[in-house]
Amino acid sequence: MNRNDVTEKIIAAKVSKGITWEEVARRIGQSKEWTTALCLGQMTANAEQARALGEVFGLGEEEQKWLKVVPYKGSLPTEVPTDPLIYRWYEIVNVYGSTIKELIHEEFGDGIMSAIDFSMDITREPDPKGDRVKVVLSGKFLPYKTY
């Protein structure tokens, strides 16, 4: 057994039970975005969160232990993604990445936006022309230091 096996079991149980990530998130007291990343193998659970996920998804003790192991981060292959939704994010970064970089550097200076001290919020915005996906990414600015 490994973390990928636990992820697959979580996804199968979610589908079987017909529950949403938001419902799961309420059970562990975290955002739906962070909870989804945890369940998909990209975050580390504490003991209480692992226990709660064990109850939700029917995970045994050994499976719960895997939720507490720090994962190897990065769920995407190194080649260009083929899933249409994920590819659009790849496309956004390809088209707007240099603009985002330039504007962050102009506003904050030489540094990066943290993906560790970070939050994300995904919501639906009703629109008469078709609902819109609103994604807000917020990361701490980390300046490069001189030494």
Automatic annotation (TrEMBL):
InterPro entries named in the record: Cyanase, Cyanate_lyase_C, Cyanate_lyase_C_sf, CYNS_N, Lambda_DNA-bd_dom_sf
Protein name listed in UniProt: Cyanate hydratase
Cross-referenced CDD domains: Cyanase_C (cd00559)
Domain Cyanate lyase C-terminal: 75-147
Pfam families named among the record's database cross-references: Cyanate_lyase (PF02560), CYNS_N (PF21291)
A GO molecular-function annotation: cyanate hydratase activity
EC id: 4.2.1.104
Catalytic reaction annotation: cyanate + hydrogencarbonate + 3 H(+) = NH4(+) + 2 CO2
Originating organism: Ramlibacter montanisoli
Enzyme class: lyase
Active-site residue list: 88, 91, 114
UniProt record similarity statement: Belongs to the cyanase family.
